[in-house]
Amino acid sequence: MAHRVTLIPGDGIGPEVTAAARLVAEATGVSIDWDIVEAGESAIRATGTPLPPAVLDSIRKNGVALKGPITTPIGSGFRSVNVALRTELDLYASVRPARAIAGEGTRYPETDLIVVREATEGLYSGVEHWVDRDHSAAETVNVLTRKAEDRIVKFAFELARREHRKKVTGVHKANIMKTTGALFQTAFREMAAKYADIASDERLIDNMCMQLVKKPSEYDVIVTTNLMGDILSDLCAGLAGGLGVAPGAVYGEKAALFEPVHGSAPKYAGQDKADPVAEILSLELMLRHLGEREAADRIWRAVWEVISEKRVVTYDLALPGYTNRPVPASSCSAMAKEIARKIPLVDMTSPLPRPSAPVAAVTSDSALETG
Ligand code: NAD
């Protein structure tokens, strides 16, 4: 039976990279019935609102969505569609694996990290205002609840256990933020005590950034709050080869949404230039979530082969960078076609070039008691 999946093409480069992912999905042979809905700028043009109720209805009904990036106006204009989707659907666990692929585009070819980020509260709660009429002062409230922080740290430890990861690092700023920092730290410490089989440690966010840049291989699964996780996941994407190859997912109890870490890159919109890999690897995560393990493995192997052969790669991977082997850049659609062509040809008997993407089952709130 076909999987029914909501598809949000998004803004900027979104339509190009989601078309690339669809092409690759087709090559796997997995039957997917796409329910295409518009959110973001195209939805404003069509309906006057960036997040029409039909989008939320479709995801609620299908339980699974693949999404392209959506533009958010800076400083004013509508609230982020991404933040609204996560809070409306309670998609609380953002999972962003940062896996270096074939050593391309990175100084750190061994990078294999997973950033788990609470995605529904913290500094993205939307509680903010100007203090006076002159806009000379402003406040954004960092709302943290014990319930949400307990469930995200539990999610991270469960993910680590299931994926045979060795360590979970909790990241906060409890030395300065005495209430929210302490709340997260306490949630992390109490949960870590229940997972004796997994090592745990803590880092202050500033030190974490420095440690990651100096020795990323000492870290494994990182769990943190919303804004810190947003920043750390871009940093880790940079360690692994850049935003062009960084996939992501957000999981809730009732739905899961798969989307790249990158944004809509408006300067490349409509040029068939953007790297499609982040969206294609988000599809890989989605197929794993749907139980289509072989198709997901084929995608991971095909992406690895295309990037290591370095014949048909987009500009970000063709640059001299750290590889000393610059090649002419291919288009987004050409790279997607090359990945799709490889899908049926990859050698499934050879060992996977690096552990596959994490499978992130969601734990229910009631399971919080049991540890
Ligand atoms: P961006 O990720 O769009 O771009 C940052 C840099 O990375 C740019 O240099 C861009 O050219 C490059 N880049 C991004 N994706 C790439 C790809 N697939 N291939 C090659 N290069 C790529 O970040 P930004 O410029 O800060 O944001 C642009 C817009 O996207 C903003 O409106 C922002 O709010 C939005 N955004 C959306 C999401 C999302 O939908 N999940 C995430 C981040 C940013």
Report on this model:
The mean pLDDT is 92. The chain has helices at residues 14-28, 41-47, 53-62, 81-88, 146-162, 180-193, 205-214, 226-240, 277-289, 293-309, 315-318, 332-342, and strands spanning 3-8, 32-36, 64-67, 93-99, 112-118, 128-130, 138-140, 167-172, 199-204, 221-224, 249-251, 256-258. The chain folds into two domains: 1-106 and 241-344 and 355-371, Isopropylmalate Dehydrogenase (3-Layer(aba) Sandwich), CATH 3.40.718.10; 125-221, no CATH class. Helix 1 (14-28) runs parallel beside helix 12 (332-342), helix 5 (146-162) packs parallel to helix 6 and helix 7 packs parallel to helix 8 (226-240). By secondary structure, the chain is α/β, with parallel strands linked by helices. The strands form two sheets. It has a ten-stranded mixed sheet, with helices on both faces. The protein has a two-stranded antiparallel sheet with strand order 6-7. The site of nicotinamide-adenine-dinucleotide has 20 residues, from loops.
